[in-house]
Amino acid sequence: MKTFKLFGAAVLGIVLLIVFVIFSCSSRDKKSFSEIQWKQKVEDTRVEDLYAPHFKEGRFYTPWMEMGDKSFLDVLGWKLFSKTHYTSEETDFLPRVTPDTAERLDQVRGDFILWIGHNTFLIRIDKVYWITDPVFSKRALLPARLTPPALSLKELNEIVKDLNILISHNHYDHLDRSTMKQLPRDAAVFVPRGLKTYVMGMDKTNVRELDWWEAVDTGKGSTLICLPAQHWSMRIGQGRNRSLWAAWLLKTPKATLYFGGDSGYFKGFREIGRKYPDIDYAFMPITAYHPRWFMQYQHMNIPEAVKAFEDLGARFFIPTQWGTFHLGSEPAGFPGLDLIRHIRKNNLDLFRFNIMDVGQILPLN
Q: How far apart are the first and last CA of the chain?
């Protein structure tokens, strides 16, 4: 009888704990989040902190606004109880996939931008090839691809002999071990601080590590600059914020390209636009921004991404990271549709927004 009572008390305790967790998590959905307050919080940050030290006690951080740790209940609240209704159009919308990319690429003689998928773009400028955050695997750790890469790794390696690789940070949808190990061993790889040794372990011999605002001459009159972003890092075997996250600016005699990586909205976009005017193409992240109460620090929604683009003063907007992996609460293709609606609603110049198909080859003007 005593054992039965103890068992009953234990069961009751577990039930009460589950009820408490459910109540706590459900209350976190849309919990006291205000877009107005968030905008004010951004405005209250200081531009000079963009240049401040950002490493202490073995971890990197954003000195203008630290992220703070999400609790287990926050994560559980997002995953289990953050519900948003999406229409069938919003659920089903995905980028078109243009076939026969390798054959079409073989006919291109000039400079171009090719969207391979997610944040993976192949760029050729003055016969020099660059690839951003190459991910060709079927999964980004757990999420599966909903659209295939425009090229296979075999096709890429046959087409490109001398390759430059840009890595924005260590999250699995941006740094894929399987892909990296299959790219040329002597490819030039540029990574943020804290990632050099890790990436060299992916069978890479030519890895250059840069800090925010640091620049490197890449030849032919071109310069690559590592820039701040508002994000974070973590990976199995690499603790939270043990390596830096970054955006990149590639200045060439023909064009200047900004690669945003992953970032929430912050004053850095204005400062980058001021410091480096005449950006031609801005590759802007639009992914995983629902729910806002959970995502607003590290990911921009569509209005913020467009504002960041305007802050940069760039000529053309290229949306990235939509339509491949389901990462936020919103469907994978939803950000692309959301951007189209935003452009129409606000009568923006559609010519400045290059919403590419997977496999589309965009000539560099």
A: 82
> For 296-316, what is each residue's pLDDT tens digit?
999 999 999 999 999 999 999
Q: Is residue 83 part of a domain?
A: no
What global pTM score does this model have?
0.91
Q: Please name the residue ranges forming H helices in 220-358.
A: 268-275, 292-295, 302-312, 334-345
Helix axis angle, 334-345 to 302-312, nearest 10°: 70
Of 334, 299, 319, 333, the C-alpha closest to 146 is 333
What is the Cα–Cα distance from 207 to 187, expressed in whole angstroms?
8
What value does the CA radius of gyration of the chain take, rounded to a whole number of Å? 22
- pLDDT band for position 4 (cuts 50, 70, 90): very low
**Structural domain that includes position 348:** 90-363
Name the domain count of the chain: 1
Write out pLDDT tens, residues 30-71. 557 899 999 999 999 999 999 999 999 999 999 999 997 655
Residue 106 within any structural domain of the chain: yes
Question: Is 57 part of any domain?
Answer: no
CATH at 176 = 3.60.15.10
